[in-house]
Amino acid sequence: MEKKLVIAPSPHIHGNMTTTRLMRDVLIALLPAFIVSVVVYGVSAVIITAVSVASCVLFESLISRFLLGKRATIGDLSAVVTGVLLAFNLPSSLPVWMVVIGALVAIGVGKMSFGGLGCNPFNPALVGRVFLLISFPVQMTTFPTPAGVNALGGAVDAVSGPTILSFVRGALKGGMTTADIADQISYGDMLLGFKAGSFGEVAALALLLGFAYLLYRKVITWHVPVFVLGTMFVFSGLLWLIDPLHYMNPVFQILTGGALLGAIFMATDYVTSPMTHKGMAIYGIGIGLITILIRVWGSYPEGMSFAILIMNAVVPLINKYVKPKRFGAVTAKKK
Amino acid sequence: MLKSFRIGGIHPPENKLSRKAAITPMPLPEVVVIPLSQHIGAPAQAVVAKGDVVKTGQLIAQSGGFVSANIHSSVSGTVTSLDPVADAGGVRRPAITIRVEGDEWVDTIDRTPNLIKECNLTPQEIIAKIAAAGIVGMGGATFPTQVKLSVPPGKKAEYLIINGVECEPYLTADHRVMLERGEELLVGVQILAKALGVKQAFIGIENNKPDAIKHLTELCANTVGVEVVPLKVKYPQGGEKQLIDAVIGRQVPSGGLPIDVGAVVQNVGTSLAVYEAVQKNKPLIERVVTVTGKSLKKPSNLLVRVGTPINALIAYCGGLPDAARKVINGGPMMGRAVANLDASVTKGTSGILMLDEKEALRPVPGNCIKCAKCVSVCPMALEPYLLSNKSKRGMFADLEPLKITDCIECGSCSYTCPAALPLLDYIRQGKAEVMKIIRSRKS
């Protein structure tokens, strides 16, 4: 006879899920936030994103080609996702050469030095961001104030200013109470993105839309975002109930800073988050607690990046000790 | 809400192309090759010699041990060889080759279509008749049925669960049996219940077969102690442990057997064979086989004599399509790829599936991105990524506490993996190594 038949063990069919498809879905989910950032910050958001993505892809392909001697894996879009997430965590006024350095650290140190996709213990985009934050503290904490928004506190000029979080922090440390600054905080602006901040983190509604898309496409499960945000809400809510004049309310905590971007897009990074739902809960609660601790008592106004990186370090331990409840370990259900 | 197993699961495309094709008797081939090992356990011992003339239904090989099964001639004719013959995997195994001459049946077999409901035999007599007829689990596991019906001392069977789930994509043989042979099937279920001494039997059927659910529910209306349970469409709903969990809400403990939670599971096809064996004296010599594939001309459900070559089935349904690159004995999730199309249909052959090029070739694997999808789909709540990884690195001693021996090899992990890693390939290897470790510790 006859043509040759393929012989392989079962299963003989494969689902349509691929790494590239998952990464593409993450990019689609980030699109609403990107559009808002372009509306709010104009062309600078486009430039930063383009530079960040191009640098990440270039560095990954150069490193895998010339240093690791492996086939370049940029086709899976994971470097593009890292590039977009890094850009979203930067002020739109950051000099372009700093973006390139951030990309080099994110991809080179954060990802490829551990062996590339799937091997890195820390979220690469956050490694890049924190490196920039420590190296260039001034540029990394000066944010252009969107046009049409009142300059916070009136003390800063109209083109650049602090984030709401650092403004509130400064005000509260300076002896003011939450009542004194209440009229300078617009929750509507927070939802829509008209506030100062890293440009991808500002639009709460757009980020939530992305969350809904990720859930719908089954890219992520609800566990990590809900436990991160829920813990932030409960912990900051307790503080607020104890002393509402000196602690900001929980809604404020969730809508400001990198809370949503971090909880939905950064903490859920597959590679650096736990493998079981129980593990995801522990990890999410840890991130929520550390974020609020840093925001309230730490020396930085925002703690999301640090919280995620710290909990990234705990993930191997969580995976080792938190096991799924095996089949047969469950007692009979009532009929 | 529909009942279902509670952990993990996937939903592959159903592709039940032959669901509407009525069961058609396949014409007799010129030669049948009947393997002596069509079941789990010891091979049967041939009791005929070269040159013997045999009738359809005549015993040709005797059960070779406690876990073994009798084998009967599926045709009438002359034994031409007792030499080993290549099986579907290409390995030569003991078999009996018979040249077909007419179709003369053993005269104790009742070939009339009359339905016989009454059964006055004792449980021991029923089990003896089932053993004599060489019946094995026809869902694919091929465990000798009389062994499963012999409840070990100290255990008690409370429920009989009939597996009409057919959760494998493409396969429709059980579906057609439920639709076309429902009355006989139900008598078979009652006989099995009597043999086990249980008062309640359930027939679990996935909800993608509403016609079968309706038909059997109507038939059950005037039958005491048999109830149809519609189940959610989710793979592997028909896995034995999953089915028990779904129907009676009990989970078989790790390393345990269904009888440990008071359950015995039998397949729909097996129940029909039990009816025929006990009421009609007919041994297991033919079965319904789904022959299917997206490019196949006539996807069908054929009533096939055991020993008929796979080639003949394919030819009868329009021939091997040009596009086909892989032929599978069974379903696409758990079936085995066929290397030798001359091999025979056996008691455990539920389907012959032809996959086209695109499905036949595996995607190129990438890096594990720790997406945790394998963990969430595993119906046994194992960690496939970890088992596969440790197995690949040869860290077999670590695998036992991670419960690798609980793996039912359903393939949900490999199916789901976005990096297309061959997770189950490595897990199978690891499982085999761990079994060796366990055996050596016992001895």
Plain-language structure description:
With 335 residues, chain A is an all-alpha fold. Chain A contains 15 helices and 2 strands. Chain A has a two-stranded antiparallel ribbon with strand order 1-2. In chain A, helix 1 (19-41) runs antiparallel to helix 2, helix 4 packs across helix 5 (124-135) and helix 5 runs antiparallel to helix 15 (304-321). Among the domains of chain B are: 123-280, Rossmann fold; 373-442, no CATH class. With 443 residues, chain B is of the alpha/beta class. The longest helix of chain B is centred in the C-terminal third of the chain and has 20 residues, at 423-442. At the A-B interface, helix 1 of A face helix 6, strand 17, strand 18, helix 10 and helix 12 of B.
List the helices and strands and how they pair.
The complex is a heterodimer of chains A (335) and B (443).
Chain A: H1 19-41, H2 43-67, H3 78-88, H4 96-111, H5 124-135, H6 137-140, E1 143-144, E2 160-161, H7 164-173, H8 178-181, H9 187-192, H10 204-216, H11 223-242, H12 250-255, H13 259-266, H14 277-297, H15 304-321
Antiparallel strand pairs in A: 1-2
Chain B: E1 23-25, E2 31-35, E3 45-46, E4 53-54, E5 59-62, E6 71-72, E7 77-81, E8 85-86, E9 92-93, E10 95-100, H1 123-132, H2 145-149, E11 159-164, H3 173-180, H4 182-196, E12 200-206, H5 210-220, E13 226-231, H6 240-248, E14 263-267, H7 268-280, E15 286-293, E16 300-305, H8 310-316, E17 324-329, E18 336-337, E19 351-356, H9 357-360, H10 373-377, H11 384-392, H12 412-416, H13 423-442
Parallel strand pairs in B: 1-16, 11-12, 11-14, 12-13, 15-19
Antiparallel strand pairs in B: 2-10, 3-5, 4-7, 5-6, 7-10, 8-9, 15-16, 17-18, 17-19
